[in-house]
Model the fold of this input.
Amino acid sequence: MKNIVSLKQNSDFRRLYKKKSCARPTLVLYARHNSANGSGRRIGITVSRKIGKANVRNRAKRRLREVFLANQSRLAEGTDIVIVARFKTAQAPFELLVKDFLKAAEELGILKNTDKTV
Done:
């Protein structure tokens, strides 16, 4: 498994929540350019207790982490990303999660070869 640099500080999450977001049926994506970290991508995953019990929340986190890993090379360098799971995340087909993630990333302008900036 590849190493993932995680967002852990509450201040990092709050900084991203103030930026533009993109909501899809299975997830909400927040992104911002990270000038302090230099190159690389950092990710934070949030799953509310409203989603379900611990096993359901952990499944949602694992699935979102895998979506990020599968598409990490498509994302711009130097971005911080927070993914918030929605109710459908744990049961949705993996292809739908990937589609929603890429669509949200495109709308936020964090995919490589896009004209938009974060």
Notes: DSSP finds three helices and five strands in the chain. The chain has one domain: 5-106.
